[in-house]
Amino acid sequence: MQAILASSGRTLVLAGAVSLAILIGWLAAEGVDGIGLLSFLLRFAHVMGAVIWLGMIWFVNFIQLNALAEADEQGRAVLMKSIVPRVAKTFRHASHLTVASGVLLLITSGYMLGSLVYATEVHMPPPRNVLLWSGVLGGGAMWAIVNLMIWPSLAVILGQTADAGAKAAARARIAMLARINLALSVPVTFVMVAAAHLY
Predict the structure, then answer these.
(1) How far apart are CA 188 and CA 139, in angstroms?
(2) Do residues 35 and 156 touch, judged by C-beta distance below 8 A?
(3) What is the pTM of this model?
(4) Mean pLDDT, the chain cut into blocks of 10 residues (199 residues total)
(5) Separation of CA 41 from chain center
(6) Cα–Cα distances in Å, from 153 out to 2, 7, 75, 144, 199?
(7) Euclidean distance between the first and the last CA atom of the chain, given in angstroms as a whole number
(8) Are 52 and 88 in contact (CB under 8 A)?
(9) Where are the alpha helices (DSSP H) in 60-163?
(10) C-alpha to C-alpha distance for 132 and 111, rounded to whole angstroms
(11) How far apart (Å, rounded) are the C-alpha atoms in residues 188 and 142?
């Protein structure tokens, strides 16, 4: 067990194996149809992606940006080389997983393209519909901020060719965009949870 827990990768494999065993046990006891299982797996991927993405948003805003502001030049260089690229890559991939699984979940649930999946439209009460699609729009905006605005600015900071002025402007832009994503993270999470559980 110590060898497994010594590596985050092996620990994640263990967590996946335990989850798979639980799923197999559930399926053996209760059974589920194909669309139901697919929807569950997509929902699980969506929640896991969102947990990682939101965790990165909060980490960047409350830890990483403050650490970069407080560090001297040598400390900042270490952070920019070792921490920032890893955080950015995780952040970006989690946003892709969250949005892709969310779109597929909307389709398999019949909320989007319902007539193609179920040969009829799926009815959703209007207030719930507003909550769900508000979350979809907010999540889409957050994805666009990460991938279309923060990512190019990060390339400027991490690049060797940009001058100090361009890097400073990119740092300020990233900090502002990170705060916007932080501001969106709570209401988007709220409306998504409300759409699923408030009724």
Answers:
(1) 7
(2) no
(3) 0.88
(4) 90 95 92 86 97 97 94 90 94 97 89 60 74 94 97 88 84 96 97 87
(5) 16
(6) 41, 32, 21, 13, 41
(7) 43
(8) no
(9) 65-70, 73-82, 84-108, 114-118, 126-144, 151-158
(10) 9
(11) 9
